[in-house]
Prior knowledge:
By secondary structure, chain A is an alpha+beta fold.
Amino acid sequence: MGQKTPLYQQHVDAGARIVDFGGWDMPLHYGSQLDEHHAVRSQAGMFDVSHMTVVDISGDDAREFLRKLLANDVDRLTERGKALYSCMLNDDGGVVDDLIVYYLDDHRYRLIVNAATREKDLAWIRGQVGKHNLAVIERDELAMIAVQGPQARSLAAAVIPEEYRAAAEALKPFFGLEAGDIFVARTGYTGEDGWEIVVPSDAVAKLWNDFAAAGIRRCGLGARDTLRLEAGMNLYGTDMDGTISPLEAGLGWTIAWEPSDRGFVGRTALEAVRANADRQKFVGLLLQSKGVLRNHQRVVVEGLADGEITSGGFSPTMQRSIAMARVPAGDYSEAKVEVRGRLLDVSIVKIPFVRNGQVLTEI
Amino acid sequence: MSELPGDLEYTKDHEWLRKEEDGSVTVGITDYAQAALGDLVYVELPEVEQELEVGGDMAVVESVKAASDVYAPVSGVVLAINEELADDSEKINADPYGDGWIVRIQPGDDGVGELMTPDEYQVFLDELED
């Protein structure tokens, strides 16, 4: 029996199949994870993400601290409310976690980090504070709902208190807004437009029920995983961990190398990885036949060392199996994957596979 | 979970068997199995006329979550396969005892594997949930 979010009873009442996720009892689906996936790509769906961790960094040295803590540079956040996706590295250049950081004001930043890494991340962040003048505040009295899909924002807007509605609707992608007790951000983990909404725990059940009444479909972790895989979004613990650098996990774009004198944690080790032209690369795979690619399956590349699938699965939008994999450096467009004792053909394709309802991969 | 049809027999691997009037046997997976697997995306079927051994590989059902082997509950020869599953594997989820049938077999002489009555299978399921 694991931890429960404030929406647990809502999930049970809605007939969810409950499973363990990182020590939390979460809804896998409410009947059909495939239907829920399609609902997000075509209309609107919502996810209980209250198990995720909200950490506010508050104080005079907040910005300076985060410029040291994170591989991306919060100096890029020049407008209030703007957000950044970043990795937090250890001294070996491996990933402690991936997260989104919001610039609330000059003395306050909000981090949203993964659920399964809560304790580890808090200990790590606190361990890095040193003499910086700031407070690390875990906001565990807050809950969160992600509404995602082409109609998500318009359906959810009708439920947002009227005084904040216009400001929420005006949010640009990757911006957040504090509106009374509510924090609304135009971010997500599905590759569709939408919001992630943070509210006090005692207000989240009503919000969830109001969203459901407005026609937003309840969606579980099963759909969340197929959506994020199609969108080419990494899952911590699966696509990368403390032994893998962002450069080997397709996250090189999240590293701010300039200014070159910004000594963020892990920089030195990361520079060595960057200099190694033989390092593994992170690619998408499209299975040419029927079947489903799975995590950890061996990727066989002609003339080179084996690679490994990190996240394997099925794309309901493409009706094909796709995967993300760590494979040897080199110039090749095909490989084979060992699936249940047989070698099946895959093509190497770009990530993401699907965005905003559109299939980007050549099928 | 729907009620167990009374006219079927069951295996520990969550397959069901229906004895047809012509002596053939229709096989599928139970509601418990389809719920555990989740939405099915592919079904690998045997060939018609393929010989089966009791307890041997017969089919594979793949969901987003996992691939699962379906074993032959009897030995014999494949008479028919449910070809509609090629385009619509979710029939197994929607109607596991009806439209979601997988294979029809002409049983051989080697006998059957261990089969349970509906009541025995229900007891078996109850013990699993403990």
